[in-house]
Amino acid sequence: ISGSQTNxxxxxxxxxxxxxxxxxxxxxxxxxxxxxxxxxSRVTCLCAQFEAVFQHGLRRSRGLAxxxxxxxxxxxxxxxxETEPVFWYYVKEVLNRHELQRFYSLKAIxxxxxxxxxxxxxxxxxxxxxxxxxxxLADKNRLSVFYEDWSFMMDExxxxxxxxxxxxxxxxLFAINIDNKDLNGQSKCTPTVSDLLKESTQNVTSLLKESTQxxxxxxxxxxxxxxxxxxxxxxQDSDPLPVLSRNVNA
Length: 250
Known about the structure:
Pfam families: RUN (PF02759). The chain contains twelve helices and two strands; from the N terminus they run αβαααααααααβαα. By secondary structure, it is mainly α.
């Protein structure tokens, strides 16, 4: 199987999974007054499928932030996952200042993975996902900067179905928790070079501090154990002082 066939199969798989997730939510919640929250597995699954579609084929070599993250990783300051691109990088391109501010000011959300996930859940809650997806797909040149040619988003036929699916969810009353620390994921993706550098410096400082503390506490331990050994009365055999015999004492 060639690479293009494999990618096509993957895109088809993603499409079918997303269609199924949308359908399950429509069957369960569509047109009802019942709230669809993230405590329901169908809602969780729906979010995960949308994330998989937005995440598919994101370019890794985009911008200085990723390069800096890679340098940081090589220096041992971050985990491998930190250099992974996330769909928030692209989503934030279509958001206005107030919308960006909204997601950067969430108390529990501290990563770009989390911001992307919060945006998705917010769009579902507010029935604005269809509008956003149209915006995301509108500029093909910008899309190609962020996504590989084989990505789902660059697949014109399949990606054009996302707004339709999003519109199909408008009859559902979503109430998904947005400011939720669980959305942060395992990795911390730092958005800017300055943040990365600042963090690296902090890490170096804390490492130095830790090693200094380590040395001083080790010295304290050595000193303490030396003091103890001095206090312990040594055995007679090893006592350098002459031992007087009982006869002399008598």
